[in-house]
Design a protein that fits this description.
By secondary structure, the protein is of the alpha/beta class. Helix content is about 45%, strand content about 10%.
Length: about 240
């Protein structure tokens, strides 16, 4: 029996073109840190390498530690003195990245329906960002971070998608079985892989990502209306 719903964020509850988002994000990052003496190319390269390292994280330390270890290896430990400046960036200039994202009020309709049925929800977004940035993106989608019993960030996570251990970590933390979970996401490779753990799945196709051109008929799929109908069939 399904008792929990896990949601992806980017491209799912928060509509977006990933390339537009990344370009806007890097643009704001460069505009903020170039006046502080950071070379633009090196900064972007560092973020990219840090992100790749988090995706490959073996779980010995948090994603946050992995990222800053990479940054320190490229810039020296002095960059750690600027961690507060990066935190300020997410409070300020990062908010302008919202303009690269879409908005669908039906996301809140779905969340509100599940809340009305007392269904516990997890925001299983790839934990590559700090908590402050993830909380902001939740709000950009018209939602409240408190709608979720957990949302994954680079501080509280030790693996990333598509590593199945990322999903196992969440289930272990909440002491639940994967068979009690419905995963909703837009990325075939990163979100639908949970069927290997026994999770139910729904592929939201509004901002579909299907890098390997897998037959999506293998999964329940559709738009927000189709998703709501499926949720109503489960949680009556």
């Amino acid at each position: 029996m399904i008792k929990y719903v896990f949601f992806d964020l980017d491209g799912t509850l928060l509509p977006m073109d990933q390339d537009l988002f990344i370009n806007k994000y890097f643009g704001e990052l460069v505009n903020t840190f170039k006046p502080l003496g950071y070379d633009s190319k090196k900064l972007i390269d560092t973020v990219a390498k840090g992100t790749f390292a988090m995706i490959k994280n073996d779980g010995k330390v948090s994603n946050e530690d992995v990222f800053w270890d990479v940054a320190a290896s490229l810039y020296g430990k002095e960059i750690l003195d600027d961690k507060d400046k990066f935190e300020d960036f997410y409070k300020t200039r990062f908010q302008d990245v919202r303009s690269s994202c879409g908005f669908n009020p039906k996301a809140k309709v779905i969340i509100d329906y599940l809340k009305s049925k007392n269904v516990k929800m997890v925001l299983a977004t790839n934990p590559l960002f700090p908590k402050i940035a993830t909380a902001s993106r939740i709000k950009w989608a018209g939602l409240d971070p408190n709608d979720f019993i957990l949302y994954t960030t680079y501080e509280n996570s030790y693996h990333c998608k598509p590593n199945l251990q990322y999903y196992d970590d969440i289930c272990s933390l909440l002491n639940i079985s994967p068979k009690e979970v419905l995963m909703v996401g837009n990325d075939v490779g990163e979100d639908m892989c949970v069927d290997k753990l026994g999770m139910d799945t729904f592929l939201l196709t509004d901002c579909l990502i299907n890098r390997k051109n897998i037959d999506i008929d293998l999964y329940k799929h559709g738009d927000f209306d189709s998703l709501l109908n499926y949720l109503k069939s489960i949680f009556k």
